[in-house]
Amino acid sequence: MSELAKDLKRDIAKTAIRDTRATITLQQLMDAKVSACFNPPSGGADVKKITVQVQFRLNDAGQIVDGPRIVGRSGVTPANAAFADALARATLRAVIQCAPYELPQEFRAIWANQDFELNFDPSRLL
Asked: pTM of the prediction?
């Protein structure tokens, strides 16, 4: 392997690790912020299995400029389907209410003006 190839392989590995850590950190920060604004709907059976995936875009100031929109849900069963819709709407309201988001500027290339997907698991709040 050439020296250039070795250098590229090493640099790519470092970047991949940093990006993965940054993504995990951002996910945790966003989850904590949205959790603070989340007002869960009442009722529902078998609801602790539901997670909601929300996509949105933030500008450099942390304000929502596109979305939010539901792009997925998991853990939905026939028993909790009606509650899952209410939970998704409550998640959207929380994302909007919590804006603007104060996120680490060192990770701005990952979150600013990029589609961001939050996998929100409200089970600990229900």
From this structure: 0.79
